[in-house]
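Figure 2 data, in text form.
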Amino acid sequence: MELKRGINLGGFLSQCVHDDAHYDSFIHESDIETIAGWGLDHVRLPIDYEVLEDEAGNIKPQGYERVMKVVEWCKKNGLNIILDLHKAAGYSFTTTGIEGQNSLFDDANLQDRFINLWSTISKTFHSCDNVAYELLNEVVEVENAKAWNVLISKAVKAIRVYSPTTTIIYGGIMWNSVSSIKLLEKPADENTILTFHFYEPLLFTHQKAHWIKEIRQDREVKYPMTMEYFINESKLIGYQASGVLDSKALTMGPEFIQEKIQQAIDGAEMLGAKLYCGEFGVIDQAPVEASLKWYQDVNEVFEKFNIGCAAWTYKKMDFGITDEHYDSIRDELIGLWTKK
């Protein structure tokens, strides 16, 4: 499966109120038609476990029916679709082991449930030739690197019972960081894609983000600016600024971006696997022309190394490409991805 340029459907079946009223109102077939009309070739569909199973782990047939409907919309419009398990029972990227709320890697029963969920997904969608499976959105904790490799292996074996050739996607730890690809084990087969997420420099792409307590709410950050500027400002947000603080790049822009992404490229090459960026984007608090420049620079590096990607995200979620914030540059942005 080729995944060249796509977009996420964040907030539809994940990070949302899980009820039919929300599902029915957030994404329609017309949205899929719009995405296909832009010239993109795939969507990434984040799905929380609550869509597919209840709190006891029992299957929700209506949830599978809803996902299948989206798969069929995509098929009708010539789009591939990644089914991304954005949240699993016992695991979410929005909480950390430090806070004591992620228990997947400490609980054998939850791991069995995770594997069984993927077995059911595989059994349900194995005949859909436009579908890929992404095992888990973002594993955060460094200490779970080895345990994540073990769980990957078990989940892949379960999936392959029903879907022997379907593309399987997964990334490393630290929110799918570029530097963690190398910590993964060699994929079991060639129908595997390794993924990373890219939001560097975080100080720019997540400026005024209310969910990052270290991020200041009282200043606008432009791009590209100088490396000295980003280094000085990034010191204020601690470990989440390590991408800048560890950089040896002399200039902010394509040089810095390539330096960061090169770590993922080298890791995937070492493991003999394809590479894909499942998320990249800029918050709607950033200056819009600076955002366009960032997208141009990132796309330049993706094209240089033939890296497929999906922008975060189609609507709302503070990053929505269809929202009013992007009105003045949307056509240019989409044209950048599709060469229109």
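Caption note: The first helix runs from residue 20 to 26.
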